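BUG: 3D viewer hangs when loading the predicted structure for this chain

Environment: internal workstation, default settings.
Expected: structure renders.
Actual: progress bar stalls at 90%.

Input used:
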Amino acid sequence: MTTPLLSIDNLTKRFGGVTAVSGINLEVAPKETIAIIGPNGAGKTTFYNMVSGRMMPTEGRITLDGTDITGLAPHKISRMGVSRSFQINNIFPEMTVRENVEVVLTAYHRHSRRLFNIAARNTAVQKEAMVYLERLGIDGLYNQLAQVISYGDKRLLEIAMVLATQPKLVLLDEPTAGMTPDETRRTTRLIKHLASGGEYTFLVTEHDMGVVFDLADRILVMHRGEKLFAGTPEEVKHHPEVRSAYLGEEEDEAVEEASP
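Structure tokens produced before the viewer hung:
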């Protein structure tokens, strides 16, 4: 059996008398794509915050590649290979598309504390930045200010910035939220292409069930902070508790449309 890249053991978070996440267990294999779904309030964001170090678990343990990372600071977890995108764009709007990636690369390689000055002059960093922009299909926008590109391209730029940290584990938080149908299809294809290359392991939260079933190797279904079910897309589609608690009639139609 393949040694898990990420192991989650009894992960729990309480806020006073409210339990936001309760006893989650999960193992993620290297190069696997796992989607985490559930209605609003299911605990998905809290789960992500604990894995990325933005929140200390009340109980439980998080192990990355054999090392306990529970409760470490976000920058330490990032250095160990976990990188995360957010629902809200986390980019520098006043900089060009390429400069956004250059700043991340400069920080990652620790060239200098003067990130903005170094990024503007370092040809090697510029070339490396273009590699990540090409992977996301936005290299043609390299010299445009980030604030003027489309919303979908901003989300792709953020993913390029995430990949520039050379992560072992990529956390994508609602990567297609707010996108048009065309942008959603394009982004889904790109993420699927990245996953198929075998270089990245993904955890993805996503409300669009068509995207979920297209991308995921396995799906973790959360409900009221607990793990309701985990299985393949096909198993999730036909699981009665999942359909009753989460999918519902409207999503059932989306599931059927997403089915081959």
